[in-house]
Amino acid sequence: MKEKNEYILGTERAELHRLGLQHQVWSGEARRGWEIAEFTEGQTILDLGCGPGYCTKELAYIVGQQGKVIGVDQSKHFIDYLQKGIELDGLENVDLQCASFDDMELEEESLDGIYHRWALAWSDNPQYIISRLYEALKPGGVIVSHEYYDWSIFQTEPQLPALNHAVKTAYSSFENSDGEINIGKHLPRMFQEVGLEVISQRTISKVGYNYDLVWQWPKSFLEIYIPKLMESEALDPKQVEDALSELIELEDLPGASICCPLMCEVVAVKA
C-alpha cells in the first residue's frame, strides 16, 4: 500500500536497496562535506530528509554518545526502518521525527550542523525551509547541502532512442512537479538571503561505465522510475518495455557509459 506522502520513487524494498547503493556511491562526497563543516564529537546535527538513515547512522558515530543526530523524514516506512536499525546498532543518540519539513520541530539555535542530500529539490517552499534551518542553527553552525545542479545532462553513450526518450520524460516529470529539481544552482543566493555565509562550493560530476558501481546508481534509478512513468501515463507500456530493454542492451555494449545528473555541494555558516 502506498504512503500518503510517498517518495517520488516510492518506499518499497527495491527503493531501500537503491538508496543503499546510492549511498555507497555518494558516501565519500558526504564525508568530504562533513570534514569541511568540521562535524565532530559532541555536536547536535540534523539529517534533513534522512530517508532510511544511511547518513544518519554515520553521523551518529561521528558525534558520539555526547552528541545527537536528529533525523527528519515524511515517510513513516523509512522512519520505522531506521528506528529498527538504530536499536539493533545500540545507537542511543538519534532522535527521529516523522514529519514534513514544514511541520518538523526544531528549537531555535539548537543545531551545530545540518546535512541534506536531494531534499530541497522536492520542496514547494524551499526558501521558507531554509529560513527555518537558519533559525535552528547556533551561531557558527554549518549547513552542508548536496543537491542537483543540472539534471538535464543525464545521458547515455551511445544514446538509444527509447531509453533516451524515457530519460527526457523523467526530467520533464521533475520540471512539472511542485519543486525545483535543479535547486543546487540557486542555493548560494538563497543561503545568503537568509544571512548564511557560503564558505565552500563545488560541482560534482560522475560518469558510470559498464558494470561499475557508479553505473549501478543511474541504472537502479531507471529500473524503478521508468515504470512509474507508465503509472502517470507519461509513457505507454510499449515505451516502457522498449526503454528497459535498451537499458539491458546498453550495459552489454563495449565502452558504454552513463553521464549522471550534475550535482553541487554548498557549505554555509551562520555568523
Q: What would you say this structure looks like, in words?
A:
This protein has 271 residues and is of the alpha/beta class. It has a single domain (13-270), classed as 3-Layer(aba) Sandwich (Rossmann fold), CATH 3.40.50. Helices cover 43% and strands 24% of the residues. The protein contains eight helices and ten strands. It has helices at residues 13-37, 54-63, 76-88, 126-136, 161-175, 187-194, 213-231, 237-251, and strands at residues 44-48, 68-73, 94-98, 111-117, 137-150, 155-157, 196-204, 207-209, 257-259, 262-270. The strands form two sheets. A seven-stranded mixed β-sheet has the order 3-2-1-4-5-10-7, sandwiched between helices. Helix 1 (13-37) crosses helix 7, helix 5 (161-175) crosses helix 7 (213-231) and helix 7 runs antiparallel to helix 8 (237-251). It is globular and about 55 Å long. The relative contact order is 0.15.
Features:
single chain; 271 residues; Rossmann fold; three-stranded antiparallel sheet; 8 helices; 24% strand; disordered N terminus
Show the helix and strand layout:
Blueprint: H1 13-37, E1 44-48, H2 54-63, E2 68-73, H3 76-88, E3 94-98, E4 111-117, H4 126-136, E5 137-150, E6 155-157, H5 161-175, H6 187-194, E7 196-204, E8 207-209, H7 213-231, H8 237-251, E9 257-259, E10 262-270
Parallel strand pairs: 1-2, 1-4, 2-3, 4-5
Antiparallel strand pairs: 5-10, 6-9, 7-10, 8-9
Level-2 CATH architecture: 3-Layer(aba) Sandwich
CATH topology title = Rossmann fold
Distance between the termini: 45 Å
Catalogue the unreliable spans.
1-5
Number of strand segments: 10
Give the % helix.
40-55%
Question: Structural class from helices and strands?
Answer: alpha/beta
| The first-level CATH class name | Alpha Beta
Total of domains: 1
Q: In the CATH hierarchy, what is the superfamily?
A: Vaccinia Virus protein VP39
Rg value: 19 Å
- State mean pLDDT (0 to 100 scale): 95
Sketch the topology as an H/E string, one letter per element. Answer: HEHEHEEHEEHHEEHHEE
- Major beta sheet, specifics? 7 strands, mixed
Strand order of the largest sheet: 3-2-1-4-5-10-7
Distinct helical segment count: 8
Task: State the shape.
Answer: globular
Strand content: 15-25%
